[in-house]
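Try this one yourself first.
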């Protein structure tokens, strides 16, 4: 989703989110999410999972307060030294001091400074929770501050303001969808590209302004929130949701043209030897071919998404485009729109675009903004049929 090369730390999350198929549900389209039953009148707080199997550290000199699951204050102290926080059963342990909890599920820790998790400063209250016997750490972030953080992390902050505003609305709608779907779950989103990249450090001024200028605005379709997927580069056109997520098509997430998009990821090539390709892609699925095939046939959908690749040889082998991309890696096979060309013992995977190609192209948004078009036009182009609605001020 991020428009420039992502660090290797997020490869796994990228693959899990972009390559795992999502199924339809019998209760309606899974990418149309009802608004909460109670109107949103004030800015909400979003629960962002920032770490797994970690122990938060309270900075020396901080005044910290601990609240149980009922919101009851159970401790307030000054940290004379760094304080490590652990959750064990119905007991919260702060550097050897124990505090009983009514509920074993979680406890909230507030400080007048910051809490550190895996060395990273979290300037928000944190929640320490048990999920399937694993400790997870959540940051409790004011929603608009979260949106500014996502914009700062997902799009270059030097880009035109209208592109940043479009990103803010898309990020806000996407996050609110997950908040509504996760009301009974321990957290709403992660801080990785499994949902949206979020950095707890202070966002750039341009990202803060983009969130402020669009405060409370979301995209709706048929009176429901739209799951506003976005990606780096379309490679000439976006993809239908049905091509990527194994679900029925829905108008706002269908293919749109983006022919003049300017991006370093519009065209790309990944090369590997046939031996490496066979070992990484074919053999793990029990379809190994020790020698290169005579030819390769690629079957694709109308939006360019590869459906099936057949390797013609003594025994033909077929694999889905999704399985090939998963095996090689989403940072190497950058999109589901690719071809496979053989040159002797070399496999050339040649493709267009970056990301799943569903919804808004970030480089496309940049191009429209540079042409003087505003964020509402950008959103209406990439999510046709939607309305931009302000839920709160």
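Now uncover the answer:
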């Amino acid at each position: 989703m991020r428009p420039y090369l992502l660090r290797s730390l997020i490869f796994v999350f990228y693959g899990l989110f972009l390559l795992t198929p999502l199924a339809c549900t019998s209760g309606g389209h899974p990418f149309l999410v009802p608004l909460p039953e109670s109107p949103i009148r004030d800015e909400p707080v979003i629960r962002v999972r920032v770490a797994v199997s970690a122990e938060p550290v309270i900075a020396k000199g901080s005044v910290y307060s601990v609240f149980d699951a009922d919101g009851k204050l159970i401790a307030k102290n000054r940290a004379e030294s760094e304080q490590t926080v652990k959750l064990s059963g119905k007991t919260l342990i702060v550097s050897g001091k124990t505090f009983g909890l009514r509920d074993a599920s979680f406890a909230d820790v507030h400080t007048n400074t910051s809490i550190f998790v895996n060395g990273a400063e979290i300037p928000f209250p944190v929640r320490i929770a048990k999920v399937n016997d694993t400790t997870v750490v959540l940051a409790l972030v004011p929603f608009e501050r979260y949106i500014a953080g996502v914009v700062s992390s997902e799009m270059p902050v030097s880009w035109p303001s209208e592109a940043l505003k479009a990103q803010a609305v898309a990020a806000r709608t996407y996050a609110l969808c997950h908040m509504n779907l996760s009301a009974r779950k321990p957290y709403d989103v992660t801080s990785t590209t499994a949902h949206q990249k979020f950095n707890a450090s202070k966002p750039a001024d341009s990202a803060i302004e983009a969130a402020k200028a669009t405060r409370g605005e979301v995209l709706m379709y048929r009176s429901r929130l739209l799951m506003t997927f976005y990606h780096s580069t379309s490679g000439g056109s976006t993809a239908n949701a049905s091509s990527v997520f194994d679900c029925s098509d829905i108008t706002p997430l269908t293919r749109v043209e983006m022919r003049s998009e300017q991006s370093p990821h519009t065209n790309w090539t990944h090369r590997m030897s046939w031996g490496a390709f066979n070992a990484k892609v074919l053999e793990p699925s029990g379809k190994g071919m020790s020698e290169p095939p005579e030819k390769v046939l690629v079957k694709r959908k109308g939006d360019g998404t590869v459906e099936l690749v057949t390797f013609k040889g003594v025994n033909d082998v077929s694999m889905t485009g999704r399985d090939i991309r998963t095996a090689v890696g989403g940072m190497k096979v950058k999109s589901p729109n690719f071809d496979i060309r053989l040159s002797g013992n070399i496999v050339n995977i040649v493709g267009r675009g970056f990301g799943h190609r569903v919804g808004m192209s970030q480089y496309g948004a940049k191009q429209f903004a540079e042409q003087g078009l505003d964020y509402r036009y950008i959103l209406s182009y990439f999510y046709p049929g939607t309305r931009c609605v302000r839920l709160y001020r």
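Discussion: Residues 161-181 form the longest helix (21 residues). The chain is about 25% helix and 30% strand.
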